[in-house]
Amino acid sequence: MNRLPSFDSHKRLATLAIAVALGGGVPSALAADPDTASAQTERPRVLSGDEIQQQVWGHRVQGAMAGGQQYDEVYRQDGRIEGDGYTGQATIVDDRMCFDYGDDKPTCYGVRHDGDDSIEWLDGDVVVGEGELGNAE
Question: What angle do CA 125, 115, 67 make, to 5 degrees?
Answer without folding.
Answer: 40
